[in-house]
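Lab notebook, bench 4. Still working through the backlog of constructs that have no structural model yet. Next entry is a single chain of 53 residues. Request: give me the structure tokens for it.
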Amino acid sequence: MDPGAWTHQASIHGIVANGEQSCITVHSIQFAETDNELKTKMFCMTNSKERTF
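Model written out:
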């Protein structure tokens, strides 16, 4: 693996029904050489919007 390359591990945390909008909350842990981040992404499949928080 090249230095600085990222490894992504994601798992489905839950599915939420919001009106006609179906959202999947995915917990994605990104491992870097000197940095560890925990990101939670919510994908809304209806309008293809992606929110990272």
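Notes after review: Residues 18 and 46 are 10 Å apart (CA to CA). The beta strands are 7-18, 21-31, 36-44, 49-52. Flag for follow-up if needed.
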